[in-house]
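User: Is it possible to get a 3D structure for a protein together with its bound compound? The compound here is nicotinamide-adenine-dinucleotide. I've pasted both below.
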Amino acid sequence: MENRPTFLANVDKMIDEAIEAVKIDQNISKILKTCRSVLQVKFPVRIKGKTEIFYGWRAVHSTHRLPAKGGLRYSINVNQEEVEALASLMTFKCAVADIPFGGAKGGLLINPKKYDEESLEKITKKFARELIRRGFLSPSRDVPAPDMGTSQREMGWILDAYKSLKPDDINHMACVTGKPIQHGGIKGRLEATGRGVHQALKEFFRHKKEIYKTNLKGNLNNQKIVIQGFGNVGLNTSKALYDDGARIVAIGEKNGLIINEKGINIHKLIKYKNENNSILNFENAKTIKDSSKIIEIPCDILIPAALENVINTSNVNKVNAKLICEAANGPITYNANKILNDKKITIIPDIYANAGGVAVSYFEWIRNISHIRMGRLNKRYEEHRGQSIVEAINKISSKKLPKNLVDQLVYGANEEDIIASGLEDTMRMALQEILELKNKYKLTNYRVSAYSVALKKIEKSYLELGI
Ligand code: NAD
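Assistant: Yes, that's possible. Here is the predicted structure of the complex:
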């Protein structure tokens, strides 16, 4: 393993490269390499008659836009530096995707698998209360979301803790995103990051010149795809790609990987994992117990969707892909990134590729503070308008419109349709901006270009508001 700089140092170096490439104001660059505030809490929880002390962090990297936004991670590897690095990534991710939030991230040092549901609820609510009391959790200042080791369930508990401490806050539902639908969550949030990764790849494949430079041939469905991770992001990326006709030949998890050159049936695999709590020994697929081998499988597109630093100097030369799409945060170390760039392996960077989650979180937050379901006001209006168009066409034409066209015209968009459309638009527009800047400054890779897009927007915001 490389004698590697920390995750935070990796992120800072990537920012430095972009600062140099597009000549950002020196004062702004100083600000952007500093986390505005970091809270560390150590709190006791009584579990089954025994008191345990838990360590948690919440880092707010930038407040040029409010609230700050970022996931809460439950893991035994969480530490302050990691949380700060992830908070910094969130600032840039929001800017790239044109989401008016600052960047934040939180973590709790815990192995969630060690505790039953009742204990986890107790721990989560206590952690939430610690954050709320210190101003690190509220609809207007700092809004968490799920990340590794957390899900809708934890977000629901956090909402309940906030509501009980702040019953007069009419916007209480917006204190957290990625929560259960019946408590103000939004359809499509759970799947959003994975669907966004799919949209990122779809948009990339619309740019033929870029495909040519990447040495890929054909369209997205002609590619051999390998995915590391089959948790929230990996599973939903696989599902969105598979449903669109893509061929996923290998999937890896912590305990091993499976390969089927003909393509893995993702729906069957999801069912299999639900029943067996593992993807190993899935039908018609070869199982390999060494999970690290997933990085080395020859493919066209490699999608790391598990955790950070998985491609580093110890294995980067074994990567056998033409394109890497970073669904996880920080899966490639700075030094490995340089080697991949030298080898002309294209990388679609995390701050763009996995921004779908925070984009839909933004829509959820808007829904919560506006207190109305999206589409509620205009769905029927659209349907009536469509019906009028159908009647008008039928009146002036001797032919009748076919039923499928009539159905399309008289369909009014519901919340899920609006969210899907907003997600697609976010991912398409962001890549177009990244490409435009890449060409304008003759940048050699997408990561520098994505950071540069973000830096330019944040620089403008700081210079207009004052430092
Ligand atoms: P998760 O906990 O749901 O899933 C993690 C997956 O990684 C699991 O399949 C696990 O088996 C696998 N994994 C863990 N260690 C591994 C190893 N050593 N080798 C191979 N596989 C391993 O987490 P998630 O929410 O899917 O998040 C995955 C990544 O995506 C993280 O980097 C996270 O920060 C990032 N991300 C998540 C979201 C979101 O909305 N959940 C949004 C943006 C970015």
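The radius of gyration is 23 Å. The pocket of nicotinamide-adenine-dinucleotide is lined by residues 146-149, 193, 228-234, 252-254, 291, 305-307, 327-329, 354, 357 (CB under 6 Å).
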